[in-house]
Automatic annotation (TrEMBL):
Name of the protein: Small guanosine triphosphatase family (GTPase)-like Ras family protein
Alphabetized PROSITE patterns for the sequence: RAB (PS51419), RAS (PS51421), RHO (PS51420)
GO molecular function, one term: GTP binding
Keyword annotations from UniProtKB, A to Z: Nucleotide-binding
Pfam families, per the entry: Ras (PF00071)
Organism: Tetrahymena thermophila (strain SB210)
């Protein structure tokens, strides 16, 4: 089966676990000493749904300030944007809007957005209330998922939900094309009738 390529970008402050999320999803691995990403890292994985197969091309962007000018290069033509915060860091949650604004400037209009609260295994140190994160996700029309790359919680669910969103978009686009082609056919028929000789 053909696997449609889908560009995915992961954004967020340095240290929130972006690389760990990607590593857990693609390789099912976790390292407590994951090195800081320089510029960007890339991995891919094929994900299967009931009706489709997608090749997620995942770009993990560096969260450090000195790399921010490079980030827009990776946002272009992205179909999915995953914006990550650390549930134990209110500061990492507070800058989500900035990351999203940057992403939406460069991404397509139909960009699928996900807000991810990582390190859910550290709930005793949680600084970001669940309700606040949920409400924010609703405000920006994004999926919301709590994850723990360390304990492999919510990672596969996140990517399966994103794949389902892509499927929904494909169906909607197909329906729009059918409606517009039917409309064109009706208009053409009416034009032909009007132009035909009544004699």
């Amino acid at each position: 089966m053909y696997a449609e390529e889908i560009k995915v970008v992961i954004l967020g402050n340095s240290g929130v676990g972006k690389s760990s999320i990607m590593m857990r999803f693609v390789k099912d691995e976790f390292s407590a000493t994951q090195p800081t990403t320089m510029g960007a890292a890339f991995m891919s994985k094929i994900i299967k749904t009931n009706d489709n197969q997608f090749k997620f091309q995942i770009w993990d962007t560096a969260g450090q300030e000195k790399y921010k000018s490079l980030a827009p290069l990776y946002y272009r033509e992205a179909r999915i944007g995953i914006v990550v915060y650390d549930i134990t860091s209110l500061a990492s949650f507070g800058v989500l809007k900035t990351w999203i604004t940057e992403l939406q400037k460069q991404g397509p209009e139909n960009l699928i957005l996900a807000i991810v609260g990582n390190k859910s295994d550290l709930q005793d140190k949680q600084e970001v209330p669940y309700e606040d994160a949920m409400n924010f996700a609703k405000q920006v029309d994004a999926l919301f998922e709590l994850t723990s790359a360390k304990e492999n919680r919510g990672i596969n669910d996140l990517f399966m939900k994103l794949a389902s969103k892509i499927e929904q978009q494909k169906i909607q686009n197909s329906m729009k094309k059918n409606v517009s082609s039917q409309s064109f056919a009706v208009n053409s028929n009416q034009h032909n009738k009007q132009g035909s000789c009544p004699c």
